[in-house]
Amino acid sequence: MSSAETATTAAPDARAERRAKRIAKHIDSFARQHGGSAEGVVEYVGRTATRIVMVGADGAWGDQIAPTYAIGRRAAALSGLTLHDSFEGELGLKVKTGPYEWKRMAGIQLGG
Description:
alpha+beta; four-stranded mixed sheet; 4 helices
C-alpha cells in the first residue's frame, strides 16, 4: 500500500476519532455535573445519526447525538460511560423526572 493510500484510509478514521473524543468530553462534563458518573445507551436514530442517552448518578438525564453508531460507541468507551443494552429496566428506573418532563409528557398525550 502506498503512503497516499494509507493517508486516505487514515483520514476518515482520524476524523471519526476526533468526533468521538469531542462527544466524549460532553459525556464527561455531564457525568461530572450529575454525581460524578453516568450510565447510558447508544441507539440508532436513523441513517445519519445515533443518540447517546445518559443518566447521571443523581438521576438527571441528557443526550448527545453522534453521526454514526460506531462513533457513538467509541465516544461512550472513551468517556467510561457504562452502557446498557436498552433504556428499559434498571436504567429507566434511575431517571428522575421533574415537573417539566411530566408537563411535556401530558401535553403529548393530550395533543399539545
